Amino acid sequence: MLVVSIGGSPSPRSRSGVLLEHSRQWLQERGVEVVSFQVRDFAAEDLLHARFDSPQVKHFQDVVAQADGLIVATPVYKASFSGALKTLLDLLPERALEHRIVLPIATGGSIAHMLAVDYALKPVLAALKAQETLHGIFADDSQISYGQGDTPAQLAPVLQERLLDSLQTFHLALARRPQAVAPGVLNERLISARWSI
């Protein structure tokens, strides 16, 4: 299984990034390959000028095309998700998320921003034809504390539990996804099948 994680924060220190890192570790412990992208790692010119021919953008598109699922995490600004994330998602082909499971994650200053996932982020994911977009997670900034030195970042117990539940649901959804059959194998199965009328 391959999962792409996309971080929408332009800041290197980000609460949504903390949730992505926890998610990456949990999935890798279960044998899932995770490839991570952050909006801040892309050249600003590629994003602002929608350079579809950029090697970095092409690599991003290729990895998404191979993915079974995506985790998309973003801070909430002005009741919506990150503009840099929207710009990056705009560089994906129209049906880029077809046959893929998506887990959206958002963080914000207060629970007043909690509907940003449903009313701002999910419609964009649906426009990219995500097969299934899970309920997702909204975390209040007070539920995530940054680590100091060797101390890792900490999640409030209630958030830790919600993240674990969402990751388990995501993992199960990935496992039940129909797997494509190679054309040669399908042809062989059809030829060797017993037919009755």
Can you put this structure into words, describing what you see?
This protein is of the alpha/beta class and 197 residues long. It has a single domain, classed as Rossmann fold (3-Layer(aba) Sandwich), CATH 3.40.50. It is 41% helix and 21% strand. The chain has helices at 15-29, 44-48, 55-66, 83-89, 116-127, 157-176, 183-192; strands at 2-7, 33-38, 69-77, 80-81, 101-108, 132-133, 137-140, 144-145, 154-155. The strands form 2 sheets. Strands 1, 2, 3, 4, 5, 6 and 7 form a 7-stranded mixed beta sheet that branches.
Quick structural gist:
It is built from seven helices and nine strands. It has about 200 residues and is α/β, with parallel strands linked by helices.
Blueprint of the fold:
Blueprint: E1 2-7, H1 15-29, E2 33-38, H2 44-48, H3 55-66, E3 69-77, E4 80-81, H4 83-89, E5 101-108, H5 116-127, E6 132-133, E7 137-140, E8 144-145, E9 154-155, H6 157-176, H7 183-192
Parallel strand pairs: 1-2, 1-3, 3-5, 5-6, 5-7
Antiparallel strand pairs: 3-4, 8-9
Helix pairs in contact: 1-6
Provide keyphrases for this structure.
41% helix; 7-stranded mixed β-sheet; alpha/beta; Rossmann fold; 9 strands; two-stranded antiparallel ribbon; 197 residues; flavoprotein; FMN reductase [NAD(P)H] activity; NADPH-dep_FMN_reduc_SsuE; FMN_Rdtase-like_dom; FMN
Q: Provide the CATH top-level class.
A: Alpha Beta
Span of the ends, CA to CA: 39 Å
Q: Helical proportion?
A: 40-55%
Number of helices: 7
The low-pLDDT segments are none
Question: How confident is the prediction overall: mean pLDDT?
Answer: 89
Query: Could you describe the largest sheet, including whether it forms a barrel?
Result: 7 strands, mixed
- What is the number of independent domains? 1
Alpha-beta content class: alpha/beta
CATH topology: Rossmann fold
Radius of gyration, in angstroms, nearest whole number: 18 Å
The CATH superfamily is identified as Flavodoxin domain
Shape: globular
* Count of distinct strands: 9
The percentage of residues in β strands lies in 15-25%
Sketch the topology as an H/E string, one letter per element: EHEHHEEHEHEEEEHH
In the CATH classification, which architecture applies?
Answer: 3-Layer(aba) Sandwich
Organism: Pseudomonas cremoricolorata
Pfam family, one: FMN_red
Domain NADPH-dependent FMN reductase-like: 1-141
GO molecular function, one term: FMN reductase [NAD(P)H] activity
